[in-house]
Amino acid sequence: MLAAGLMGLAVLLALVIAPEDADQGISQRIFYIHVPIALTAYFCFGLGAWKALLLLWRGDERYDLESYVAVHQGTIFGSLTLITGSLWAKASWGVWWTWSSNQLVLFLVLFLFYCAYFMLRFSLEEGPRRARSSAVYALFGVVLIPISFLAIRLAEDFIHPTVFTRDGPQMTATIFTAFCVSWAAVTLLAYVLYRVELAGKRLDTDLRELREALQ
Amino acid sequence: MSQGQYVAAVYGVVLVVVLAYVAIIAAKLVRLQRETTELLELARRRQPPVRSAEAMAQEAAGET
Taking the model in full, what pTM does it have? Predict the structure, then answer.
């Protein structure tokens, strides 16, 4: 309920209260949903890698499911990042996609890398071997996160202007507030979805074990 | 398409994806609830019937 309420407030701030950008016009309002979703995708992939590291380090198999759910959330938010980014690019610059932009290609590589995670995972039999292989793969992918993130900051082309500099955010207080609320809303939404999916998967596993024990 | 329609499309896509995700999770929860009920029934059938103290005393008297 809190996530839904915060999401409603974020949409209200983004679409009604925040002022229209003088340069990009109404299409700049995509910023309030695209950037938080992209940051959440990075966070989910990072969380998946962290849980994978914990699995390899401590050997506790519960981290396998946590890592899997985090990567799953990351791919959902990653696909949303690509769709919303593509729509924004078309609205502002008239192109759906450009291969000459490194940051776009790097994000696509990161996304496809984690899509392949599922192919690896479901090609192996369930058990410790699958958990370890998936964890190692998820850990390798984490290298791409800072590269992809920094590429956006280092690139000097027009697609991703840097608005967060050392001098602070280069935007008005209203725009910054709307952005922060949107970011909090998307993060909370991702957290709620993560917990619900994880609880469902754990319950599924427990029920399967119970069925085997009873039959 | 106008710029406003692209903005509406972006927010619409996010809403549809989140709703689809919630619907999938809800369907899964319904399935889990059904499986829990089935397992409960299975467990009840396997449980030996509880006998009353009177029936047990009658059985003991019959044996002697």
Answer: 0.83
